[in-house]
Amino acid sequence: MSFEAVERNLRACFRAIASDRPGAEARDFAGITIASAGAEFQMFNSAFLAEPAGPSEADLERRFAAAKVHFNARGIDWAFWLCEGLVDRSLHRRFRSTAARHGLTWAVDLPGMYADGLLCPRRPLPKIEVRRVADEATRLAFCDIGSVCFHVPMRWFREIFLWQPMWTGPFAGYVGYVDGEPVVTAATMVDSGAGSGVVGVYNVATLPSHRRRGYGEALVRHALDAVAKETGIRRTILQSTKTGLALYQQMGYRAVTKVSVYAS
Questions:
Q1: Which one of 73, 94, 106, 210 has the lowest number of neighbouring Cβ atoms within 10 Å?
Q2: Domains contained in the chain, CATH given
């Protein structure tokens, strides 16, 4: 099912970010997945459902409690990412109250979107120079654009994305340049295991001074074309912000689930 592709790729993405990093952990237990970078930014110290929860509320409570014990024992802030499709419908209205009992506050709801392939662009797209994240300059550009666009301290992004080993695996980053200046980023996560065959799109961000010119769409299409040439995979997923929803729908994506994020 397409919502499962969204959920699997999201977990795989966080596992890739946490891999080969001092203080990081990635493991399954008690019906949850821990994918923690051990970072200052709690969104990268994450828990997920490893299997469907419910229909009893006690089952969901048990999963939250296991994650809370794990992160409290390590003294780090954390987040729980819940894909609506993995929770019995009778529990949907209890997400926030269950999270609150375990010290988590609702942060955001993101439409989880899926496309078998992209539709043709509705407008001519601008030409940009694209560089794959592979050296310190492109890593710094990726961090600094993300910091501005996602409104988080620069040190938080640099702690995660300056780590060179993470760019040698299935998580790939791209920076788009206009007149020699970095203005837009995107990342892809290939999940080809267990018959998934899907590419996740992440970290799409355009500097405010360069928005509404098609740079984000141009870079996403470039990145997905590059992955398709390497792997043959054209099925893609992403989590959209409200501002990006209409564009992604025009590109051929449809909402198949909701991803709710709760953070300490």
A1: 73
A2: 2-110 (no CATH), 129-256 (3.40.630.30)
